[in-house]
């Protein structure tokens, strides 16, 4: 059998922990080699690249940047095109717009020998939208060679709808849903994009408000469902986590007790009594793999409220790149072998939390 190689493009807030997680669990996940592409030889990134190499990953760089890496003491193993050509699956974790560019310039030329290509939430239209545990059955063998892992807040919205309204695949139960994404301005690993005060966002989509609800609707559309949902967004001057306010109306009468049972039954949902992003973030830093919470949502239990038996209101925390990491690995395993991907993914089960 040919060697199973997963190639990651980009070493940012998703790429770096994804490389680390794949290295740490490659045997359990059935992966032989993990390679990654670094675009620019920066001295500030030298330490993290050397650590990934020390742990077993293999570096690929562009031909014209190879000498730059050698000058800062980093020896690449592959050139970029060679790494893509060798890859079983490619996961693109580059900034917005670069994934589409890479698809046009590179990935589309390797569809004959690479099983599939995955991009992140910002690359709308890259391929079929996907979130682990929400629309796994929508992935079709021989059809979905390009997959877009939806954004972290879209994971949160979709997971809440799936757990609260679509229990037992009752897709007629949702009346409507409204969401407000209260977003951190930037990640602690980023030096830019900080804002001095809260900043409200505009509703650029006539039907869905922001891309978060639109993307969630398109995610469910792969299952033949068109939920009535709307989202708003704002940024706050924090580096910790996103918060999601949700208001979900359902036809079937529901109680707090039933709600908690549904959350408890979903391993991708975590609960917390914490009310601050700093304390939830701190838990992930101290107890999560690479500091990440892989659950798709963390429900702030004290905020849950059921109004008139049909309206569920509350707040949840979004484990930013954590839920995207999970879906990226799940999609990669599906592309490698659809028959074993669920079983392989269970090797990560101890990385999920029931309570944060």
Structure description:
With 356 residues, this protein is an alpha/beta fold. The protein folds into two domains: 5-150 and 323-347, 3-Layer(aba) Sandwich (Rossmann fold), CATH 3.40.50.720; 152-320, 2-Layer Sandwich (Dihydrodipicolinate Reductase, domain 2), CATH 3.30.360.10. The protein is 31% helix and 22% strand. It has helices at residues 15-24, 26-29, 46-54, 66-71, 80-86, 98-105, 152-164, 211-221, 256-265, 277-287, 320-336, 341-345; strands at residues 5-9, 33-37, 58-61, 78-79, 89-92, 116-119, 128-130, 146-149, 174-184, 199-200, 229-236, 242-250, 269-272, 297-300, 305-307, 311-318. The protein has an eight-stranded parallel β-sheet, sandwiched between helices. Strands 9, 10, 11, 12, 13, 14, 15 and 16 form an eight-stranded mixed β-sheet that branches. A hairpin with a 3-residue loop joins strand 15 (305-307) and strand 16. The longest helix has 17 residues, at 320-336.
């Amino acid at each position: 059998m040919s060697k199973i190689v997963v190639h990651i493009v980009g070493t940012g807030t998703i790429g770096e922990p994804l490389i680390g997680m794949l290295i740490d669990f490659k045997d359990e996940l059935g992966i032989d080699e993990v390679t990654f592409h670094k675009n620019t030889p920066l001295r500030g990134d030298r330490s993290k690249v050397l650590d990934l190499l020390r742990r077993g990953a293999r570096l690929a760089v562009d031909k014209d940047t190879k000498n730059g890496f050698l000058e800062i003491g980093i020896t690449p193993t592959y050139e970029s095109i060679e790494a893509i050509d060798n890859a079983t699956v490619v996961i693109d974790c580059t900034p917005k717009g670069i994934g589409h560019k890479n698809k046009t310039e590179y990935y589309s030329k390797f569809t004959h020998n690479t099983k599939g290509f995955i991009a992140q939430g910002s690359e709308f239209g890259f391929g079929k939208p996907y979130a682990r545990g929400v629309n796994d059955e929508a992935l079709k063998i021989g059809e979905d060679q390009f997959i877009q892992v939806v954004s972290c807040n879209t994971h949160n919205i979709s997971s809440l709808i799936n757990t609260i309204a679509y229990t037992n695949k009752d897709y007629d139960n949702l009346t409507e849903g409204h969401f407000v994404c209260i977003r951190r301005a930037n990640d602690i690993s980023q030096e830019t994009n900080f804002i001095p005060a809260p900043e409200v966002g505009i509703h650029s989509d006539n039907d869905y408000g922001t891309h978060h609800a639109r993307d969630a609707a398109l995610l469910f559309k792969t299952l033949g469902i068109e939920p009535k949902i709307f989202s708003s967004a704002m940024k706050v001057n924090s580096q910790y986590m996103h918060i999601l306010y949700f208001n979900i109306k359902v036809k079937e009468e529901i109680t707090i007790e039933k709600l908690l049972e549904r959350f408890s039954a979903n391993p991708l949902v975590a609960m917390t009594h914490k009310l601050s992003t700093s304390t939830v973030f701190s838990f992930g830093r101290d107890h999560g793999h690479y500091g990440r919470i892989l659950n798709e949502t963390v429900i702030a239990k004290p905020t849950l409220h059921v109004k008139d038996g049909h309206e569920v209101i509350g707040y949840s925390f979004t484990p930013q790149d954590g839920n995207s990491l999970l879906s990226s690995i799940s999609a990669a395993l599906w592309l490698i072998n659809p028959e074993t991907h669920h079983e392989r993914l269970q090797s990560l089960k101890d990385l999920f939390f029931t309570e944060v």
